[in-house]
Amino acid sequence: MHRSFRNMNHIILFIFSVVVLGCRSDGFEIFVSPIGDDTLSGESISQAVRTIARAQEIVRMRNRQASADIVVHLRGGVYSLQKPIVFNPEDSGFNGHRVIYAAFKDEVPVISGGVTIP
Length: 118
Description:
Number of strands: 5
Radius of gyration: 14 Å
Order of helices and strands: HEHEEEE
Mean pLDDT: 83
Helix content: 10-25%
Low-confidence stretches: 10-25
Strand order of the largest sheet: 1-2-4
Shape: globular
């Protein structure tokens, strides 16, 4: 079972470890940081939300009205998941635009869904 957790971590990390250096968008940007706060807007580095789940909620609220790509910038650090993140069609782009989850500049986000086994 420990091996399956490790494999799941690798799969999750692979999915989210898309690194877009200098990823810049003329559309809407959301910033996520392990030291962020989910009560903030996520619209700037200083207003970063803490969880990927909160960023996903913001994407869903703004997605259908998007006039350009939505970029979710994941700041460096560890994001420990308490439950799986599930993406469905409402998390995809609309109106010909994309939703992009990417590492922020040269930072390395790590998404961990594993459980520490003593």
